[in-house]
Amino acid sequence: MEEDPSRRSVVDLSEKEVYATSMNPSQTFLDSWIFVVDLHDLHGKVEYPVDVSYMPDERFKRWKYTTYNFTLANYWSPHLVNAKEADSNGPTDTGLFNDLYLDEFDEEWTTQVEDFDYIVISAGHWFFRQMVLYENNQVVGCCYCLKDNVTDFPISYGYRKAFRTAFKAINSLENLKGITFLRTFAPSHFENGLWNQGGDCVRTKPFRSNETSLEGTDSEFYMTQLEEFRIAEKQGNKRGLKFRLLDTTQATLLRPDVHSSRYGHLKNENVTMHNDCVHWCLPGPIDTWSDFLLEMLKMEDNYNVS
């Protein structure tokens, strides 16, 4: 029997809980997720979520669709590991995470996810900031800090270590039964300069597949994610845990046309901002991430039924 096209993106999320770690693009992903779930009510009507957050902090949110006992949660963890913010304003008001403990779990999220059915983790652009790196509670190096007698590491060093620790945290959860999804790195699209050197993103059309390629740090971050994912997957499979790759990188690479650029604030807001070629407009490619994830959840649902 031919599948009804109107049901291709529908998955039964009743009695489920979905958790996602968040850095800024992931927050937009969660915004898109709430919108998509609103529109995919299996009974033909829209149900809006109830805020059931445990704390008032907007970076740590839970929403519940009470009719279906479906919970969607978001936890802010831009580095995935324990980090201490030395200066909440920092240079150019972007924030400065001065201390990054690469071998320590971020218990803000690792203590909250054991009962979730699906876990989605991601991290990326916050690793371009200035950081002092710790292992075994000792300084081992830094990124962009140029401190005397401290080794300056490439940013990929901390990035790899952070994902290794995050996956270790997931694999150490004794009662975890859920599936872990890694949402891969989303490249930025600065042209004619870096973010703080006048770079901008003014294209109005997507790239064709032969007009761009993943290069430099973007490629390094992506490959690092894949390598650490495969290691974690192999370790997790030994105890029956499932890992899935939500690979959005190539699709996102082709969309330089949907960043907020200089329009990332209210029209009359009196602020000085750099052009934003990291975050995304909604509607936009973030909705495609949601489509990918919904289709993967549907595949899991069909597999469990069969």
TrEMBL record:
Pfam families: PC-Esterase. InterPro entries: TBL, TBL_C. Residues 42-296 form the Trichome birefringence-like C-terminal domain. GO terms for molecular function: O-acetyltransferase activity. It comes from the Eukaryota. GO terms for cellular component: Golgi apparatus. PANTHER family: PROTEIN TRICHOME BIREFRINGENCE-LIKE 19 (PTHR32285:SF48), PROTEIN TRICHOME BIREFRINGENCE-LIKE 9-RELATED (PTHR32285). Belongs to the PC-esterase family. TBL subfamily. This is Trichome birefringence-like C-terminal domain-containing protein. It comes from Acer negundo. The lineage of its organism: Eukaryota, Viridiplantae, Streptophyta, Embryophyta, Tracheophyta.
